[in-house]
Amino acid sequence: MIHRTWMLAGLAAFPILTGCGDKEGAETGPTVKFDSPWTCEEHWMASNIAADLRGMAKLAGATVESAETVPGKKEREYRVGKVTLVMSPSCWDTASYKPLLEGWKPKAVTAPASADDLLGSLLTPNAAVLQKANGSVSKRIKESPADAAAHEDAAFLLGVFGIRDNARAFSDVRSVICRMTAHLALAEHLRGGGKASPNGEWAKVLFELHVGRTRGARELAAAIPQEGNSGRWKRVVDLLATGDWRRMGDLADPSLAEMIAHARALKIHRGNPQMMEFVTQHKAVQEVPEWSRLLPGNGRSVEEGHLLMRSGLPMEMLEIGQVFKIGKDPKPADLTKVLAVTGPVALVAKEGEPRVIQDSDWAAYFRRHFFATCSDVSRFALRSWGSDEAAEEWEAYVLPYCRPLPGHELVEPLVSTQEADFRKDMQAAAKFTLGHPEQVPMALWFDYRYPNLEVTSGGEMPAQKPWFREPSPPGTAYDACLRIRFDGMMGGPWVPTVTALHKIDPWDSELCFEVAESGGSNPASVEKGWGEMREYSTQPLRQLLKNANITPDERIGTLRTLAPLDQEYGLQLGYLLAMTGKPEEAIKAYEAAYEEATDRVAVSNQTQWMIHYYKSTGQDAKAREIADHNEEVYSQSGLVSAFTLAVVEKDVARAKKLARAIEERYGEGRYVPVAAWQEGKNEKLLRQIFPEGIKQVTVADFKAEEKYKGTRIAENSLTVRTAGLRAGDVVLAVNGQRVESFRQYFMLMASELEPRVRILYRRGKTFAEVECLLPERRLDSSMPDYGD
Fold it and tell me: pTM value?
């Protein structure tokens, strides 16, 4: 069984600051040769757009030549027959394709206005509505292929389709953007500089949003008169661009599009509990898989992981069934038949019939989300739940569905549970990437290039260059931060690039993080990087908390701001207030978190101090209530807190029962002897752990020239620093009782609730004793034995 520590594509997993600007750390080696008909990502996308435009122009009656798109003489230049295309500035900008359309000269034919209210109907962007709109817009283009408004409708439909893409590392809307580029380029040509239709205006807004130009998207949206459904679309765009969940306000009857955007904003900037609380209040959003797609990632609780395991694939199957009419619980063969469909990224497929969203587009969309769910559940089973058996059962269940599908090589390493299979699957993924680089999103490529702590940089997965030549298509911030990280690992000049892209997309969480990180993640740099987002997002506040140099008062102030956004931080606030000698303030913070935080595992893991407080103030019933809650949740630290109360109350039978539970469920047997020791202070056991008995000592008993056994503090945790200690200090006594090993230290610390502890330690040749407040009676550091 392997236990992978996958580096997530998110900002918390791999900040690019450390050493990335150092050329000495750059990867070196021969240029990777991809077995692909395209020389790079830009060539692939420009080829798709040119081919799509060729099909559209031909459908509109223009005479077009069949010619491949080949690299030109200069960088970022391509030739299609005799026509030279210069990307200006990126392959996604419509101006890049003007020479092509001017040569083909498709002529505009204005058709009667469509009776379809796309701005209204697509506010409910479930699969059934999208497919219905797909049919009507495709029919309109077939009947009036030279009507600019029809192509603007198609671009708008594709933009809404792209909003639904949320497949984590498998997410990829590049093909959608290419399709939108082609439709908008043709519409602009047909209009000859005239004003776009309302749907065309909103198509341009969604286009800007998808390419990462969020500032531009909001500016375009603000310029559109907010009449009818335009006001709702402006709210959708604001929510998706900024993540400011407050923009939903008290809207009485939100559309599905607004609810999806609001749920994403809550997930990103507050967390799963707040997102799921919103979802449970709105039936419409429960009926699409958006909520199950949002559950994975940072901050997922064990309960939410089990919910994903139960509901993730059924929710995906539900939408697949709506589009392909195969039912909500298809057999592997039926699923393979529809999800294995492939085709060109174009309006006109091989059959010659125009279709805005091809069956191959739907199949690719569902494959990405199916693969993402398979990998997310496997990751949960292995890492969060820690159940090898569940991971193996999941692997056996999903592989028959995955293996017949195109691109299955990209998901198999993520569900492998055996080391040999994992290595073999990684090699297959690398081979697939060399042959089909266009099918591998950057996030997935990054994860596979640096998959875990046991695989060195430059493992089986090929380097991204020359396929990804630049951080993002010029003038856009699409997928920018991961590309910069990849480039940064190779010694790229990432700081100026991040700063420039941050101006294009000032609400991108990863870009904000990197701007703040480049300034040291202090209050001033966090303000510069995150701006107004500090008012509604937990992310800048969490980044500030990671700065070891902020003062305790700054940390407490930050936690006071965080707690109303996410009550789990009330537990940390209470912890720090308890450590700094403010018990009355601490208990208020703890009580609010205990009542309101939805992640009960987190609550049970962090409430031992509450038990002590109630016990020490004569509120035994409340202490027992917390302990019983923690025991029922059955988390490791929760069981430990209930165990410690049993020890303090001299309830030996209960203590033994809880110690056995901790050992059986979590493989931690150190509490069994603590429980046994309480049974009349078992002298035999005492001699096993303390061969010379428990000795009382003071600082005066130690001499600088002598060597002493103890237990060494390995990390500078917040608890260690606040206690006045630091990594490297050797603990020699607890409350005046000599300890020569971690086992002895643990025995003394685990048998009390009292957070006030005197620790005698050695630092170099000096000895000192510090009295500190440890709410959980631990230093939050590994503590190996020290000495002979």
Answer: 0.83
